Amino acid sequence: MYRLLSVQLEDGGAVTASGQADIAIHEGDVCVVELNRVPELGRVAQLVEKPGEWATHPAGAVLVRRATLHDQAKAKENAVLGRMALKATLKRIDELRLPMHLVFVRYSFDRAILHIAYTADENLECGELIKSLAGELRTRIELRQTGVRDAARAVGGLGTCGRKLCCCTWLRNFEAVSVKMAKAQRIALNPSTIGGMCGRLKCCLRYEFDQYRRLGESLPRDGARVQCPDGRGVVIDKDVMAQRVRVRFEDGRILALEANDVKPLPDDERRPPAGGGKPPHEDSRAQRPQSQPARHP
To answer: Given the DSSP bridges, would you call strands 113-119 and 140-145 parallel, antiparallel or unpaired?
Structure first.
């Protein structure tokens, strides 16, 4: 028997680690894991018991122990040293005039590596920055350019819903989000409405998209001519979840009707009249004989 754990790291990332079953640890506990032979501090987000003999997980993360009081005191010391390293990094970036925005600067648990993450609009040559920081801080520097979504995950914050960002709490993998998902859910295409803290489209636009798409297939499209119990009209709006349709009738009335009471008109009733669909007055003009010019002697 062994354990498989999902561990949330200090920088907002998550790893899957495995450990022996005799290690006393529970969900929510702070722990020390070894990732690529480098110790890191994290918190157990999920724990699953697995049958069979303990073996190292393919990802390479191994649970070392539950964090002790000494480990937590060392983590606080690392945080203080990390803030000092942040000031030194900002100073070097300003001196070198590099167009980058720092996301986080933190030490590994054993302080053997200084992790620096940043965002930039283009790929930068940072060799001089790494060389100068390594000489000043006397440690190994790992510089990584990250995306805006990963930056929002590392920094954290509150969404427009008033809760912590999904990427900071439970969302592990970023999936593609498009404006099509907002349109299917009848959401106004306003940047302040559909944009997240990272400046990209909100990840939550994807959560109910499949259900909206499935329910919307049974509703007539916007602008479709339909037959209702009160007469004929045109669809002007829809409430997909409630399965209701707003219809404007020929007499100007607008009613919200159940989807079952709205039937799209057959193709033959929506087809334009014979003769190419020309208005009657145009046909009459075409048949009217042309007047002859007056002749003068």
So the answer is: parallel
